[in-house]
Amino acid sequence: MDRAAKKELVMTLNEVFKASNVVVVAHYAGLTVAQMQTLRKQAKQAGASVKVAKNRLAKIALDGTDAAVVAPLLKGPTVLTYSGDPIAAPKVVSDFAKANDKFVILGGAMGKTALNPDGVKALATLPSLDELRAKIVGLVQAPATKVAQLVNAPAGKLARVVQAYASKGEA
User: Fold this and answer.
1) Of 102, 97, 109, whose CA–CA distance to 42 is shortest?
2) Strand partners, 48
3) What are phi and psi of 38, to 5 degrees?
4) Rg (CA), the chain
5) Residue ranges in the chain assigned as alpha helix (H)
6) Distance from C-alpha of 75 to C-alpha of 77, rounded to nearest angstrom
7) Euclidean distance between the first and final Cα of the chain, in Å?
8) Could you tell me the keywords of this UniProt record (predicted)?
9) How confident is the model at residue 137 (pLDDT cuts 50, 70, 90)?
10) In angstroms, rounded to a whole number, what is the distance separating the alpha carbons of residues 89 and 107?
């Protein structure tokens, strides 16, 4: 890689680290190309991205970003998984690590907060942003329907009482 390409890669990675809400670092030694392609496909479907970069260049790109706390983890064959959604990247990495023993999660960063492997797995168990939004909408709508039922119930009862008296009067 020539000097200009390295400089461009560092600038690109720096922008990625600034834009991402979460970065996860893992070792991928021993994985086949097909397994790495599977990881990339799963990440893309979840809204995350996977990048393999030279550790030295990644450390340079991390300077001045919130994710700089992951720099000590960049040793050996590492892969960076990142996303704007704080749940997407950890979920993809955790699911992939369960299926592949050779894929080892080292840690990560969410904003300026450093995450150990357990922290990454804890993030992965949280529901996604879309799931949370759906739950909130459901919670907001449920009381509204109950209020509508309560408001309509007295009118319905009154109508049934009037109907009963009307039926009694006819008989």
Assistant:
1) 97
2) 83
3) -65, -45
4) 27
5) 3-19, 33-46, 55-62, 88-99, 117-125, 129-170
6) 7
7) 99
8) Ribonucleoprotein, Ribosomal protein, RNA-binding, rRNA-binding
9) confident
10) 12
Residue in the structure block whose two tokens are 């400089």 = 7
Nearest to 68 by CA among 108, 12, 118: 108
Contact yes or no for 83/96 (Cβ under 8 A): no
Length of the chain: 171
- Are 25 and 33 in contact by the 8 Å Cβ rule? The answer is no
List, for residues 17-76, the tens digit of each pLDDT value: 888 889 999 999 989 999 999 999 999 998 999 999 899 999 999 888 888 888 899 998
Rounded Cα gap, residues 141 and 165, in angstroms:
37
Query: Are the CB atoms for 94 and 79 separated by under 8 Å?
Result: no
Count of other CB atoms within 10 angstroms of residue 110: 22
